[in-house]
């Protein structure tokens, strides 16, 4: 079989598309109109293709174009290549325009309590073709999931390292929640005031517990911690039942809890800066950028640091 020297091979997608279109139309003028080309330009493409292949593919008559046996053989492969490339272009355009794709996000459990479901719901309504999954992971696992490629990015309380970069996206503050009976008659709450109550604190080793202990130290408070749950829903349930005052990040406390009062803790205000974490060599895909835009919208209007007190 005769091989075409690479130095002489001028065949590209334009030649294949022109050939396929002429074969389908069986007419140069109509094919040129479909491709938005002049007839001489189209004829030149076919001529270059035949010259490089070294064999006639078409025979021209005054009325129609006939496909030679070699042309019929070549047409099978040409159609497949044209279709494959057109499909590839269509798929990447769908990906870029958020019509299809997949997004995997890891976030701290506190964020998955309230904010992430809201953001995911808005994202799904705007971009129904994107398959999105959100997993809740502890802070010490967040970086590992990001660096190992299990997720596209993470959201949490993590410092920047050689492996990952972080972009601050929201500020979360600690709040106190308890039953209405425990907080009866109050319109504010300071860290000093906590000495009057039995406290519910997240278990040792969590970022929430570290922030809590920082608040106690800064306020000079000796806390009476009676319960140390591992999960935030458990802490909220304990507080709702009147077992004590739970100290939690505002991002993890639902806007309205029946029978529960929430106060922003003051003197001092203890906050944590939450960031988007990704690997240094992994730029955001369009779906990730769209998700983060929605997260910023939620934080701007109903952000964790701006949650209203529950009456």
Automatic annotation (TrEMBL):
The keyword Methyltransferase does not apply. Signal peptide: none annotated. Residues 11-68 form the HTH lysR-type domain. One of its GO terms (cellular component) is cytosol. The keyword 4Fe-4S does not apply. Pfam families: HTH_1 (PF00126), LysR_substrate (PF03466). CDD domains: PBP2_LTTR_like_4. PROSITE patterns: HTH_LYSR. GO terms for molecular function: DNA binding; DNA-binding transcription factor activity. Keywords: DNA-binding, Transcription, Transcription regulation. Belongs to the LysR transcriptional regulatory family. This is LysR family transcriptional regulator.
